[in-house]
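Read as amino acids, tokens; as here:

___
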Amino acid sequence: MKKLFVIVFILFGTLNLIAQEGPSGPAYAVTWQNSSGYWFAVGPTQALWAGERSQEKALEYVIGSKAKRYGEVTKIQTCGKFTVYSLGVDYESYDTDAIKYAQKKGYDCNVSGGGESYVKKDFDHGRYQGYFLNGERHGEGVFNYNDGDKYEGNWKNGQLHGYGIYTFNDGSHYVGQFENNNFHGHGTYTWLESGNKYVGEWKDDQRYNGFMYNKEGLKIAQYTNGTKKELN
């Protein structure tokens, strides 16, 4: 047991050393259990090296407040003793790709298990690169549409679901939450040509509670429960 804790401590000591310069990107968390029944985890904000009695507590410890508030934790892969989760948000943090650090503990994406896989696949309306589960796009993935649109983010059962970035072929883009292929939850839509943007809550693809800003950053409209009010 002492030897195990020393190894884990060295691993996460290394994480702390590189905490200053890591890139931002889609956040992940990885959990695993040792032979004594303790659960360990690494995530975008910190690592758990002391061990927890339950997998749920270990995962909760490392996912961070941003993922708890805005994200959607989705299991995307199981490889041997390791379970990988997409957190549905981006982090500007040292451990945006926790999978790399889990690999130091023996994680191997090529180990079969759980029926999950990372693939590239062509569809009639574009090309997908990312995770599949039970034949559906599920987890983190990128879809390049034939018309020039692009989606980068989380999927659930073949639909845009969770945190993502949708860029239209004219350069306008939406950054935020999706549900069942719709803008749903908190998000920001920016129109490239005018420079205007909407920031706030969406409901079933419609602006619901939030503000519209012009390119100078001034509020020009308010939405309350889906009703728009112009601001002078």
In short: The chain has two domains: 2-103, 116-230. Helices lie at 2-17, 55-62, 65-70, 98-103. The mean pLDDT is 78.
